[in-house]
Amino acid sequence: MAARTRTVDRVELTWATNLDDYITLAAPSPDGTLLLTGSLSGRAALLDTTTGTVMAELALHDFGVLAGGWSHDGTHLATTGHDHHLRIYPAADPTHPIDVDLPGEGASVAWSPTEDLVAVAAGRHLTVADNTGTTIATWGPLPSTITAVAWSTNGLSVGAACYGGLHWYRPTEPERPEKHFAWKGSLLSIDPAPDGRWVAAGCQDAAAHIWRLWSGDDMQMSGYPAKIEHVAWHPSSRYLAIGSVGEITIWFFAGRGPQGTRPTTLDAHTRHVTDLAYRPDGQRLASGDANGDLYLWAPPKRTSPTSHANLGSSVSTLAWHPDGSHLYAGGADGTITAIATTT
Amino acid sequence: MNNGCICCTVRGDLIRILGNLMRRRDRFDHILIETTGLADPAPVAQTFFVDDEIRSQLRLDAIVTLVDAKHLPQHLDEIKPDGVENEAVEQVAFADRIVMNKVDLVTDREADDLETRLRSVNALAVVHRTAYGKVDLDAILNVGAFDLDRVLEMDPRFLDDTEHQHDQSVTSVGIELDGDLDPTKLNDWLGTLLAEHGVDIFRMKGILALTGDDQRYVFQGVHMLFDAQPDQPWKPGEARTNRLVFIGRNLDRDALTASFTACLAD
Prior knowledge:
The complex is a heterodimer.
Chain A: E1 10-18, E2 23-28, E3 34-39, E4 44-48, E5 54-58, E6 65-70, E7 76-81, E8 85-90, E9 98-101, E10 106-111, E11 117-122, E12 125-130, E13 135-139, E14 148-151, E15 158-169, E16 179-186, E17 191-192, E18 198-203, E19 207-212, E20 218-221, E21 231-233, E22 239-243, E23 248-252, E24 264-266, E25 273-278, E26 285-289, E27 293-297, E28 307-310, E29 315-320, E30 326-331, E31 335-342
Antiparallel strand pairs in A: 1-31, 2-3, 3-4, 4-5, 6-7, 7-8, 8-9, 10-11, 11-12, 12-13, 14-15, 15-16, 17-18, 18-19, 19-20, 21-22, 22-23, 23-24, 25-26, 26-27, 27-28, 29-30, 30-31
Chain B: H1 12-23, H2 41-50, H3 52-57, E1 64-68, H4 72-76, H5 87-94, E2 97-101, H6 108-121, E3 126-129, H7 137-140, H8 148-151, E4 170-178, H9 183-197, E5 201-209, E6 215-222, E7 225-233, E8 241-249, H10 253-261
Parallel strand pairs in B: 1-2, 2-3
Antiparallel strand pairs in B: 4-8, 5-6, 5-8, 6-7
């Protein structure tokens, strides 16, 4: 039974901007001034985070934008999509992108947390380029299309999720053999814990799979009613949130890990949880679902939502402003909504 | 499904592509999936059974197999190494519609022989003879072959033994059985059957009468995955006849019939 919402947080819609089609990308710049956005219309744009005004239209990706992001220092940004192109922009002048041809459609982008290197999933290949568009390394073909890429928190390794497990590579040592975290199944996401101890992946077979990064030892959280597309680590790495149909579970990862423990269950959604995002201070978890319902939570202390809003369209992506003051929600109807939260 | 056979371990590529298509504002009326000539149809069909998101937005209409009337016989006869499937036979076995093309290159007798052979592998598929690929699109699109209510339209002639040849490893087996089934026995039987022989059972369809239940149950499946639901009530005076059909490899008609008969309520 769904938990009753007792409003603790005040939420207020600040602005809404429409980008024509299903929103696939909403990423605030590290300084919080701009929001990098993209949609399946192919349109990519930079919005002012305070007003939602389009500050710059970026180059179209034919057939749709699928991913994008900012470099760690905010000096560069990148977008990719169905058109087999990666576009890298200097943030100071986002009018002349550097175009990188990819061997497949660009499904996922991740910038290194320590250097101006960007990794992109390109079909069954993983490519790493620098901010001039020069390819540093390419690996593949992997056993199937790569669904997601991520860097280890120390920036030394980049990982790719696909059918059959996670594949890790070192861009500075491209000849070094890959490290393979095997799992017989389709992995849909890859999320390293901020402290670098764990890496989690959502799975098609209604489970989340977690590995210890240093040893490759693994565990599985199974028994969910449907595939797991998104997981989210608490900034402290003490908790992992897993979203499925109608519920979110919070697993405790401090100490020896969650084995033998019971998760905290957050029960309010009525449909598939489509995205999860912890606020940067870790005090709130935002979750959105296919029904357009958006909830804020304060787990593990509270298991009922602290606030609720319905956006009128399936929530496709969530991202917090770096200072935690606003939540940005993309929708299937093409709208990006900025929501101010006061706790 | 974890650590199950490969056909039950869902590959994500097709789900991801279909998911992306369904997110577009200009959603599609129909999606045609053209596999390579060597593809195993099972994982493609299973995609529509196992993923909730896909299942809620799309329905599998039919598996259409295009065959070359001139050259198919040699592929059906091809001896494969141990452990390697004969893809031509599998693709015929999985089909709901078979477009037998290039009949202009063979005699009527050769076409008849081939059609008989196709029916011996797959007694349920409808065969359309064509030249130059000219086929009425209504015959192969929007046919609803996977709709459960279409199971009720199964042609009873598939149960006619005389149409079947038993000297092939891939065949159709139809079973007709009067009487009410014990749901517990039926569940146990299906569970065991699919666990032990699911890899060999390509397609199955059925209409069942369960004891104490006024409604008919219809089901169909691909390998270990199946969909079942209650259908309309049995009509007054209508014989409560269970009908099952299997298409698959190394099917033992006598064993299937005996074990299914054992599911009858006491």
